[in-house]
Amino acid sequence: MFVLEKKKSIAYLQAPALAACDFLVHAFGTRLGGASQEEYQSLNMSFREGDEEFRVLANWSKLSAAFEIPLENFLVLNQVHGDDIFMIPPHGEYFTSRDALNCDAIVTDRTDVAICIKTADCAPVLLADPVRKVIAAVHAGWRGTALGITAKVARLMQTSYRSEPADLLAAIGPSIGDCCYEVDAATADAFSGQKSDAILRPGKKDGKWMLDLVEANRRQLLCCGLPAANIEAAGLCTVCHPEAFFSHRGSGGVTGRQVNFVMLRGTTPGRAFVLKDDFQRLH
Ligand SMILES: [Zn+2]
Fold this sequence. Notes:
By secondary structure, the chain is an alpha+beta fold. Helices cover 23% and strands 25% of the residues. The site of zinc ion has 6 residues, from loops.
């Protein structure tokens, strides 16, 4: 069961198996403890949803201070609902413009880079290999999940970082639950290749289906050879808990984003980035 923690004003959730790894820091974000107002109240981490920039930047500063991670060590993808994976090399520069970040997952063995996934219903999946010291963060909405992005990441950790599936730990954070995620037939059809009987059930209305994003991603991890005991899920629906989480569907569309991140601790904090502009890194 995930545990609610607090650092300064920031409330966040931790997955027990990842929290037990002393070589990493991770958090599944809530909307609690920030400076944003109205629809974005209060810890909105996205510059792209119409919130005032100075408030979003203040929220990032609060997160940075609470976790004692320099702001320049956080990296946020563009998250384009695809299945491309951004691999950060262990040393040197790795991007000079945000165009390179049109991806929905990050994998790295580099220390001191807090790899971030913003969510407001989509499932954030964090992975860690305690043996090879490799981490990944995945943005799994219905499109990415239908494309098998979480399986793709788990396979890439095996092929490019020599991870053994039995070593991998995975945690699936709060997302829209199958209690609330009604989708149309076209969306349901996108899952036809993925044991759809386990992840789709008929909705209340004709032609509608209830989609279980968490189970779909859990099954992808199982198919890659992860032991069931290594996969934890928050079991919290973002629509059912509007006091704690931003929800795109629950809000009717105008809302903020919580951030979820994982980072390998370095022995000496390093300046990880080429871009000095906070907006470029976090936008
Ligand atoms: Zn729900």
